[in-house]
Design brief:
It is a single chain. By secondary structure, the chain is α+β, with helices and mostly antiparallel strands. It is 27% helix and 29% strand. It is built from nine helices and 20 strands. It has helices at 31-47, 71-81, 90-93, 114-127, 171-177, 247-253, 260-270, 293-296, 323-339, and strands at residues 2-3, 20-21, 52-53, 58-63, 85-87, 101-107, 110-112, 132-133, 140-144, 148-153, 156-160, 163-165, 186-196, 205-209, 214-218, 226-230, 235-240, 278-289, 302-305, 312-316. The strands form five sheets. Strands 4, 5, 6, 13, 14, 15, 16, 17 and 18 form a nine-stranded mixed beta sheet that branches. The longest helix has 17 residues, at 31-47.
């Protein structure tokens, strides 16, 4: 049974993101994250081919200043994780300001259409016999004897052997209501700008590594629009899990004043043609980050089996394709139980 608070599946963080299928390029300061992304990339692209946008070339540029990685370091990192990399052609280099950019690479990385992914997942869930309950919230979890759990909803209760909490930024809210230990976490209220890209950037993804820079990628869920995000301007404000701030209340009541102008102004220093892009809209969401990610930009998947309540497991992934890491752990646990 899948319980979803929203009217439809995958309308929150699974939709409000860059739609990037990571291959590891984004994480030169965390080799483990890079290697896991490289491994999961092929699985995701194969399993969900119907949702994958392969048409757009993807570029990674290295800034001359303020970057946490040099061009040679980036090359070496890609060799280590086994991610394809080649020098961008001359006409691509001419799009960038050579005084600001050390090098530009052509990489193999794709985006996904979240709406097609939702349809595909709904089909697979129904074929697997999963009961989908949308527009339904879980008020709390009540541990029962024999490692059973009662799931309390507004109009009914359900008892089960295992509960997987996959509520992203709202994980701790449910744990608190259930009297369970929460997970250390940092939250950001973020803006993802949607733009009509400049003609020279149509169907091209650009990511500037690795520091206080920007990224613009095709966003297949909204036709020909691209996302535009910026490390400095995308987060509007942040708080930690010990500050007792309700992520849902922030999402509902936060001021939505776009920082698009600041994003585009800074991005144009490196990629002048982006100034011809047109702002269309912004997507807003609460982003959840594990504290260890602040030091090395890693994106580990959270998998917490609550020690005194083994039937309750909290799962949070920072990238949609690292769901495979959780699946592998769950499969291992299931096989271990079957062997006993």
């Amino acid at each position: 049974m899948l319980v979803e608070r929203e009217q439809h599946l995958m309308t929150r963080a699974s939709l409000v993101n860059q739609a990037r299928i990571h291959r590891g390029y984004h994480y030169p300061r965390s080799v483990l994250t890079g290697m896991r992304s490289a491994a999961n990339f092929s699985r995701f692209v194969e399993d969900f081919a119907v949702c994958v946008n392969r048409a757009a070339p993807s570029l990674y540029a290295i800034a001359r200043r303020q970057s946490n990685v040099t061009s040679s370091q980036f090359r070496r990192f890609c060799e280590i994780i086994g991610a394809p990399l080649e020098a961008a052609p001359a006409h691509i280099h001419r799009l960038f300001d050579k005084e600001m950019i050390e090098d530009v690479f052509l990489v193999e990385e794709h985006t996904f259409n979240a709406l097609l992914l939702r349809s595909e997942m709904e089909r697979r869930l129904l074929e697997s016999g999963v009961r989908i309950e949308t527009a339904t919230s879980v008020e709390r979890l009540v541990p029962l004897p024999g490692h059973r759990v009662r799931v309390v909803m507004p109009d009914r209760t359900v008892e089960t052997n295992t509960v997987l909490i996959c509520c992203y930024a709202s994980i701790n809210a449910l744990l608190e209501r259930s009297g369970l230990e929460t997970v250390p976490m940092r939250h950001e209220f973020v803006e993802m700008a949607l733009i009509e890209p400049a003609p020279a950037l149509r169907n091209i993804g650009v990511t500037l590594m690795c520091g206080p820079f920007f990224s613009t990628l095709p966003f297949p869920s909204r036709g020909d629009l691209h996302t535009l995000s910026h490390v400095r301007y995308t987060p509007h404000y942040a708080w930690s899990s010990d500050e007792s701030v309700d992520a849902d209340r922030v999402q509902e009541g936060a001021e939505r004043k776009s920082r698009y102008a600041a994003m585009i102004r800074d991005a144009a220093r490196y990629l002048p043609v982006i100034k011809s892009s047109r702002y269309v809209d912004s997507l807003w969401e609460v982003k959840a980050i594990l504290p260890r990610s602040d030091s090395d930009d890693s994106r580990p998947i959270l998998f917490v089996q609550h020690t005194d309540r083994p039937a309750i497991v909290s799962i949070m992934g920072a990238k949609i394709d690292n769901v495979y890491d959780a699946c592998d752990v769950l499969d291992t646990q299931r096989n271990q139980r079957a062997a006993i």
